[in-house]
Structures are given as structure tokens and as C-alpha cells.
Specification:
Blueprint (H helix, E strand, L loop, with lengths): L2 H21 L14 H24 L28
């Protein structure tokens, strides 16, 4: 099954479920739940808001790739005879 077919199938299923949401009467506990398409809109917007929040937090608190610099273990020089290269002795 190709990826395009999967995407189109899921899109069609989502469209059908959204259309059913306008016809089917739900017993909502709050007023906002009664809005047709509320869960579809929330399902699209809330992950996008979380992703945007992660980008903002990375911008505010993120460190550069060379933050550890010279103190990093990967920056140490190792003697060539002591480095394992995957071969069995």
C-alpha cells in the first residue's frame, strides 16, 4: 500500500467523521463541546500549539552545539593503539 493511498484514505475518513459530527447529536457536558467540529479543530490546533511552544522554549533555553567545547569527552585525543575500531582481537 503506497503512502499516498494511506494519506488519502485517512483524509477521507477524517472528512466523513467531520461530516457526521454535523448530523449526529452529542450530549455535551460543556457548551464548547457542542460546537460541530470542535474535536477536529482541537485535534489540529493543540498539537500545533505544543510544537510552537517547544520551538519557543528551545529558542529561549537552548544551547549551541559546541556548548561543552573542550571539556567534552568527545573532544579528547585518544592514543590510536587504544581505540577500538570494531575489530576483534
Amino acid at each position: 500500500m503506497s503512502m499516498d493511498r494511506i494519506i488519502y484514505t485517512l483524509g477521507a475518513l477524517g472528512a466523513v467523521l467531520l461530516a457526521v459530527d454535523f448530523v449526529y447529536h452529542r450530549h455535551a457536558y460543556t457548551a464548547i463541546e457542542g460546537i460541530p467540529g470542535f474535536y477536529a479543530i482541537a485535534g489540529l490546533l493543540l498539537p500545533a500549539i505544543l510544537l510552537l511552544g517547544g520551538v519557543i522554549l528551545k529558542f529561549l533555553f537552548g544551547r549551541s552545539e559546541d556548548y561543552h567545547g573542550i571539556r567534552d569527552v568527545a573532544a579528547e585525543a585518544f592514543p590510536a593503539d587504544q581505540v577500538e575500531n570494531g575489530e576483534k582481537k
